[in-house]
Design brief:
Elements lengths: L2 H5 L8 E2 L2 E2 L1 H15 L10 E3 L12 E3 H11 L15 E2 L7 E2 L2 H11 L4 H10 L14 H11 L11 H14 L4 H14 L10 H7 L8 E5 L29 E2 L6 E2 L7 E5 L3 H7 L3 H4 L4 H4 L6 E2 L6 H9 L1 H4 L5 E7 L15 E7 L14 E6 L9 H4 L1 H12 L2 E5 L4 E5 L1 E7 L2 H8 L19 E2 L6 E2 L37 H11 L9 H8 L24 E2 L2 H16 L10 H10 L23 H12 L15 E2 L4 E2 L4 H16 L5 H17 L4 E2 H19 L9 H4 L1 H11 L8 H11 L8 H19 L20 H4 L25 H13 L5 H14 L5 H21 L1
Parallel strand pairs: 12-17, 17-20
Antiparallel strand pairs: 1-2, 3-4, 5-6, 7-10, 8-9, 10-14, 11-23, 12-13, 13-14, 15-16, 18-19, 21-22
Helix pairs in contact: 2-3, 5-6, 7-9, 7-29, 20-23, 23-24, 24-25, 25-27, 32-33
């Protein structure tokens, strides 16, 4: 018996003396309870600890009140051999023991798992069920699903199989189906085929239905809420019992009596005209703390520190810190959740199908580190706004359940179990901002993004005007007010609107309090109000507001520095499209039209571009390429090759006959704008035109960096008005629509809210594409997505537990990824270690002399093992020729280093 066991032998001796409970033993129990309470990571709710008595349902598995634990110990005694109190905070036994015993947290978890006879999949079921779930208690109706899964986790798939149980096989099959977007028919056929491969008495689920039934406990709830067919209201809350719309009077349910004459029958079930799906956000956020795969990551935002003043996450930005300062009680609990919300519509039937507009609303947490934040696994579908019509401003009607839940999560919160700390806490949540394209910006914020007041930052301070000939709004000469007061462009009366000097300054972005006061003063209504349509329509004629957004119901919304984000993705694409279509003079898309030429000199002094009265023709402009130049650019684009996964094949977008590019997606425009545009136009445009185009390209490139400093963003904020003014000196007023104006505000938003890639639409757009693939029944679009999403949630949660040991997030293999251990030799140079695998059969050919020389030089310059020899070569050359600059050194290296290296190594 070692010293530790001798010290704690009292646990199993002297409990009862002369037929009565021993006071000395009772004092020791009090010391044990006090020890447990000193370790909050092992305390649940402040007063509950694991009961170590001998009862089957206890045995360090169940949390009980400390007084109840004492009673259990008096009646039943301690569980055998519990000398090291690993479940009550004892992670290290000190040197007073005869042997040192060290138990890590992960080892403790493993001991807990072993003590409960848990497999990895048992642990998955318990994590999904929550801390109150006890597998040894009698099940109630609600917990029956979890008990079914526990039993399935105990049954081997067939006799003699020690690798898979009925539960593990079911969740693996489900995960494969969801990951590869397979149909239900595929699942059933594959299950039948597997049945033929297994012994006759196997427990493999027979089809998709039986699999779904087995794992249904892993799914999270969804609510189906009836709606007015005209999007006036939802039958929810106090209105849940109504049978007709309180605004338009339309019936809630379809006609119950059908047929005619003697063939009349009554529909037994009431079928609503329209229904929405709501996926409560609370249980989905709680599940992030239910598994050790994600619970620790949810505290990353408070545990990391900025390096060199670089913002790499929204938690580094002033908007986040300002919110912390306004609500210190919220920020003091680092596990409280910060959320972002995005909404966008899509056509589920393709371009040639039925006209149908479906609007998913998705929420994502920002607590996570950069490699997990905004990833598909952590985007939660919250609302499915049903089609077939676009909800437009009435989207607030469908957001009511979400806003009510967000208000509850802010004011009261919900008790949540954090498995990483083994304790309950009151989880609260706050919505930081919304992310939308520009039309949806209006739907969410209530500020109209059409017309001359379209800019939500300038608001009534806009200087946009309507063009005489085309009748379109123009933001030409709308950027000099952002320049310093003494900038020479402010006094320029030639290159902008003629005879006009600019002395006004941008008034700045309004605060939340100012906007809310403006809404209250104007008397705008929420769209759910009975008189909202009439009142808001009258008010919107005198200002840019068209409604009072439902987000103002959130008690903290007014305190945010940024409530709705301008989407950099769509702005960048629109700016690129305007530049490319105008420079290439694409018919129907160019901004250099005969109307713009007619009105050009009414606003500017550019007589050289006016119509020739003799020939009635317009002279060529220097910013448009001729036919041969277009061919050269398109041929160059067609031959371009990018690293795998960097961009799509732009060569497929080239139309050599019509001399244009077509079918370019947003990311294609992103790559072309930032990487290719300056190179493509360098040889064909004059410097005074090429330089501003290059500057706008570099602006977007710097703005979308993964890490930014405040100084860099302030410089961008100062540069962008100058860049736009330089573009105004080149292009006609018709070129400058609202999309060419919005970049002037992007650097400000990045400085306030942090890096752009947490606030643009690329991740949401990719996620909506995955939602679209879940539509298996086109007659029931919303229901099909709902079922697919619930199954997908269960499969993703199960994937955390596929490997033995602690739950972990599954690693996604990249395209063409290879395992270097299988093909790399120990003495292989770094440059020859393949980052991917070859496509197709290998081929052989001799290199020309210039190709061989270029390949040889490339290998030497990019091989880390050669770098010391490069340093020696440069040192020798600088010693021979002390006045050599870096450019000359590079030229000499290209010419002489390969031969010098060969002689140096061989000598």
């Amino acid at each position: 018996m070692n010293v530790m066991e001798a010290d704690r032998e009292w646990m199993y001796e002297g409990r009862i003396v002369n037929g009565m409970f021993s006071n000395k033993w009772g004092d020791k129990v009090d010391e044990f309870v006090a020890f447990a309470l000193r370790h909050p990571e092992c305390v649940n709710g402040g007063t509950a600890i694991r009961c170590p008595c001998t009862l089957v349902k206890c045995q360090n598995k169940k949390f009980l009140n400390v007084e109840t634990v004492k009673v259990h110990l008096y009646k039943n005694g301690f569980v055998p051999d519990y000398y090291v109190w690993i479940y009550h905070g004892e992670k290290e036994v000190h040197q007073r023991c005869s042997r040192s015993v060290r138990v890590s947290v992960s080892e403790t978890d493993q001991m807990v798992s072993d003590n409960m006879n848990h497999t990895t999949y048992h642990r998955m079921v318990c994590d999904a069920a929550g801390p109150e779930f006890n597998p040894d208690e009698e099940p109630n109706a609600e917990a029956r699903n979890f008990y079914d899964m526990i039993r399935a986790g105990d049954k081997p798939l067939y006799e003699g199989n020690s690798k898979h149980t009925q539960l593990s096989a079911a969740v693996r099959m489900l995960e494969i189906k969801c990951r590869h977007k397979c149909s239900q028919a595929w699942f059933d056929d594959m299950s039948n085929f597997i049945q033929e491969l297994l012994p006759p008495d196997n427990l493999m689920p027979l089809d998709f239905y039986s699999t779904k039934k087995l794992v249904r406990g892993l799914g999270l709830p969804v609510q189906v809420i009836h709606c007015c067919v005209n999007n006036c209201m939802i039958y929810w809350g106090d209105d849940s019992d109504l049978n007709s719309c309180k605004k338009c009077g339309h019936a809630r349910y379809k006609q119950t009596v059908r047929g005619s004459g003697n063939r009349l029958y009554i529909r037994k079930l009431k079928v609503p005209y329209k229904k929405m799906h709501y996926f409560p956000i609370t249980p989905r956020l709680q599940r992030l703390y239910a598994s050790t795969a994600t619970a620790n990551e949810m505290r990353w935002h408070s545990e990391h520190h900025m390096e060199d003043g670089k913002m790499c996450h929204p938690s580094d930005a002033p908007a986040w810190k300002h919110f912390d300062g306004c609500f210190p009680d919220f920020s003091s609990e680092v596990r409280n959740v910060r959320l972002g919300l995005f909404a966008d519509g899509f056509q589920p039937f393709g371009q040639s199908g039925q006209q149908y507009s479906l609007w998913p609303v998705v929420v994502t947490p920002y607590n996570l580190p950069p490699d997990l934040c905004m990833k598909e696994e952590f985007m939660f579908l919250t609302v499915l706004v049903p089609g077939p019509t676009n909800p437009k401003g009435k989207i607030d009607v469908f957001l009511q359940p979400l806003i009510a839940e967000l208000k509850s999560l802010w004011g009261v919160g919900v008790q949540t179990y954090d498995i990483s700390k083994r304790q309950n806490f009151q989880m609260r949540a706050a919505l930081m901002w919304t992310i939308n394209d520009f039309p949806a910006y209006s739907m969410m914020s209530g500020w109209s993004t059409a017309g001359m007041l379209a800019c939500p930052h300038c608001m009534e301070d806009s200087d946009a005007f309507r063009l005489i000939k085309s009748g379109k709004q123009s933001w030409f000469d709308n950027h000099r007010k952002f320049l310093p007061i003494n900038h020479p462009y402010r006094r320029n009366t030639k290159d902008f609107i003629k005879n006009r000097k600019v002395t006004k300054q941008f008034l700045g972005v309004r605060s939340g309090d100012e906007i809310l006061q403006d809404l209250n003063n104007r008397g705008l209504r929420k769209v759910m109000d009975v008189d909202a349509e009439v009142v808001n329509a009258a008010i919107s004629k005198t200002c840019g507001w068209n409604k009072r957004s439902i987000f103002w119901d959130l008690p903290y919304w007014r305190e945010h520095l940024l409530r709705h984000n301008l989407d950099v993705m769509h702005i960048e694409k629109n700016v690129f499209d305007n530049i490319f279509n105008t420079v290439f003079n694409i018919p129907g898309k160019t901004k250099d039209t005969y109307k713009s030429r007619d009105e050009l000199n009414k606003y500017c002094r550019r007589p050289q571009f006016a119509q020739n009265l003799v020939t009635s023709k317009y002279p060529d402009v220097p910013f448009v390429l001729n036919k041969s130049q277009k061919k050269d650019v398109l041929e160059w684009v067609k031959k371009l090759r990018f690293p795998d996964g960097y961009a799509s094949n732009l060569g497929r977008c080239v139309d050599a006959k019509k001399l244009k590019m077509f079918g370019m997606k947003s990311h294609d425009c992103h790559v072309f704008m930032q990487r290719l545009l300056p190179i493509a136009l360098r040889e064909f445009l004059p410097n005074r035109i090429w330089e501003p185009l290059t500057e706008i390209s570099l602006f977007f490139k710097q703005l979308t960096s993964s890490s930014l400093t405040d100084e860099e963003l302030r410089n961008l904020d100062e540069q962008i008005p100058v860049i736009l003014c330089n573009l105004e000196k080149i292009f006609p007023p018709s070129f400058f629509d609202s999309m060419e104006h919005l970049p002037v505000h992007l650097a400000y938003e990045a400085r306030i809210a942090g890096p752009v890639h947490y606030r643009w639409m690329y991740p949401p757009e990719r996620y909506l594409r995955k939602i679209k693939h879940k539509i298996m029944n086109k007659a029931q679009v919303e229901g099909s997505i709902s079922i697919g999403y619930i199954m997908d949630e269960a499969a993703k949660f199960a994937s955390f537990y596929f490997k033995e040991g602690d739950p972990t997030l599954p690693l996604k293999e990249k395209r063409n990824e290879v395992y270097l251990d299988d093909i790399v030799e120990d003495d292989m140079f770094e440059i020859f270690k393949p980052p991917g695998k070859a496509i197709g059969a290998e081929g052989k050919r001799y290199l020309a002399d210039n190709e061989y020389t270029a390949a040889h030089l490339y290998i030497l310059m990019n091989c880390p093992e050669v770098q010391p020899f490069i340093d020696v070569f440069i040192t020798e050359k600088r010693r021979q020729f002390p006045n050599l600059n870096d450019e000359v050194v590079n030229v000499v290296m290209e010419q002489e280093f390969p031969s010098w290296f060969e002689k140096y190594v061989c000598s």
